[in-house]
Amino acid sequence: xxxxIFVIIAVIxxxxxxxxxxxxxxxxxxxxxxxxxxxxxxxxNGAAQKMLAVLIDPVKLDRYVAACQLGITxxxxxxxxxxxxxxxxxxxxxxxxxxxxxxxxxxSILALIILAVLTTFxxxxxxxxxxxxxxxxxxxxxxxxxxxxxxxxxxxxxxxxIFNGSAQILLRLFGMMTMGGHAxxxxxxxxxxxxxxxxxxxxxxxxxxxxxxxxxxLRDLTAEQVMLPRSRMLAASVDKSCQELLMILAQxxxxxxxxxxxxxxxxxxxxxxxxxxxxxxxxxxxxxQDGAGQEGAPCVVRELLRPVAYLPDSLPVDxxxxxxxxxxxxxxxxxxxxGGTSGLLTFEDLVEEIIGEFEDEFDEENPPVAxxxxxxxxxxxxxxxxxxxxxxxxxxxxEAAHTIGGFVLRELGRPPQPGDTVPVDDLILRVDAxxxxxxxxxxxxxxxxxxxxxxxxxxxx
Length: 461
Known about the structure:
Blueprint: H1 2-31, H2 34-42, H3 46-56, H4 58-96, H5 100-136, H6 138-173, H7 188-200, H8 206-216, H9 223-226, E1 228-229, E2 236-237, H10 242-250, E3 256-260, E4 267-272, H11 273-280, H12 301-304, E5 309-312, H13 317-326, E6 331-335, E7 341-346, H14 347-355, E8 369-371, E9 376-380, H15 385-392, H16 404-412, E10 421-424, E11 427-435, E12 438-445, H17 448-456
Parallel strand pairs: 2-3, 5-6
Antiparallel strand pairs: 1-7, 3-4, 6-7, 8-9, 9-12, 10-11, 11-12
Helix pairs in contact: 1-4, 1-5, 1-6, 2-3, 3-4, 3-6, 4-5, 4-6, 7-8, 10-11
């Protein structure tokens, strides 16, 4: 009697262990990080090499996961069937002593109790615990289970082929696409959540988080939002002489100058300071738009022009970056819906959206934000409202204007003057300096919490 009980318990534990093995193998495989496995493989870990080969090949990964699922299903069914039948057999002598009516009721109640106990045992020890271990130690566990799983795949290969084929046929009947594997595919939103979770868990420092978030947010920005606006562009007519263009560049912090024909709405190229100096020295200039230069030839502006990229103002920043990389352009002209020049976009502008503002020895512009005395924040007029809202937890309306300067101009309904104020929510925006018809710097008071948050961001937004 006791020997029978011992055997039954041992078999049930073995089946639960087998179930847990397949659960751990599946979750560790789909959670394992390929770079970490590649590192382990490079260090000579043979199991990591085999596991990496499975993860790289969608067909192998699909077969691997199918073997895990088949093993889980079979072991779960056997646990239920074996445990129920064997325990009821042990209790049968006791049940036989009852009258028929009581026996039927007792059998039904016992069957439910046995099923509940076995299910609880199976879920806790055979499902949840192995799953948590597999997710927590994916690389270590996936390499430990790699060799036994190879034998399981060989054993289940015919069944896997039948079941996978049947599932694909069924999906095609319903007009659904069939996936070739269980590859790790995450949407940008899911990646953002992973970044935030990793940052909260201490796996990413603040700077790494900022770079990743800024990179993911590129797709949410348009060329119009990050460009240098037309009103602040420095451009020159193609009719000017090379000497005049040299003087313009000498008095500016730039090495490239957009050139227009007739009006700034017709940018025909960009001229580089190096080409101007080379031409002024009487040496050939290359590349040029038409023909090769000749020694001692007069400097002709049109021959020195380099092409620029033309970008719609609604083009997402990540696509603008791809266009400029593909065309090997360092400068792009942003066009409005009517084909006119809306602004200027450079590689520096795009890079700064990822790593933040940086200055070289020629930059004379004020920083985007600066905390002054008495809790007053100075903001440059071209700072995006969305960036301010995110950095300081504000609710400034960003629908009608992209920048804080544009918002002030819209609210005033006229060109701003120093000292103008615009009340919005609990803030009073004050114009401190103007340039042309726009607000160059705007200030408002911030709370101690907002000031502390700004310091945590390194003074950048």
